[in-house]
Amino acid sequence: MNITVLVKQVPDTYSERTLRDDHRLDRDAADAVIDEIDSRGVEIALQLVEAAGSGEVTVLTMGPERATETLRKALAMGADRAVHVLDDGLAGADALTTSAVLAAAAGRSPFDLLIAGNEATDGRTGSIPSMLAERLDLPAVTQVQKLSVSGGELRAERADETGYSEVTAPLPAVVSVTEKITDPRYPNFKGLMAAKKKPIDTVTLADLGVAPVAANVVVDATPRPPRAAGEKVPDDGTGGQKIAEFLAAARLI
């Protein structure tokens, strides 16, 4: 079984985030880490290949030169090879361009599964997995919290509005996973050393035959206003009544 996993380098949650003059996120100003949901995607891919008894896990990213650090982290976890789409023309790429580039890169090698996180922590559009499936003309199963593969099809437990549903789909397919899918392993010393020798294939837009065309442009960005301080209700025997009055005034009861 061959699985390709999308991984992304994102600003550390605890780093201060700033915007550039063109209203795009200044990624160089913040500490960068592998998106936590993508670590879970790598982990479930490794588990599926281990269960199958053969195959490879390839990790794929699109980003600046330092995104190589994210690929090395995934390789240290146990992934076999990596692909880095590196091109200055992709700076600030929107979802449409990103999906076109990733689809072209993923399609260069055959795979049984393409796994992605349900959404990236820096953008939270949650649109890339479905867009990839559309571009690659493959089934898409999103919001997956349990996943297994047998007999040429996948079986997934998918989170939905009522709880979850069980679905099946033929392979190859595109899957997006949630944080419930599994916990990622920590790379050990042996894995860290091995990652330095594993191949990273760097490709450009010219290699992929893709010309980026932005479908949208950010014209302005405004910081979120600070939240107003909440009202404290001391419990002097009338706390319950005051809370009820507050909720009634807000038309919540």
List the SSEs and their pairings:
Elements: E1 2-6, E2 9-11, E3 32-34, H1 36-52, E4 56-62, H2 68-77, E5 81-85, H3 95-106, E6 113-117, H4 128-136, E7 140-150, E8 153-160, E9 163-170, E10 173-177, H5 189-195, E11 200-203, H6 205-208, H7 239-249
Parallel strand pairs: 1-4, 1-6, 4-5, 5-11, 6-10, 7-10
Antiparallel strand pairs: 2-3, 7-8, 8-9
Helix pairs in contact: 2-5, 3-4
Q: Can you give me a brief rundown of this structure?
A:
With 253 residues, the chain is of the alpha/beta class.
- CATH-defined fold name: Rossmann fold
* pLDDT < 50 runs, ≥5 residues: none
Order of helices and strands: EEEHEHEHEHEEEEHEHH
Largest sheet: 9 strands, mixed
Q: What portion of residues belong to β-strands?
A: 25-35%
In spatial order, strands of the major sheet run 9-8-7-10-6-1-4-5-11
Q: Structural class of the helix and strand makeup? A: alpha/beta
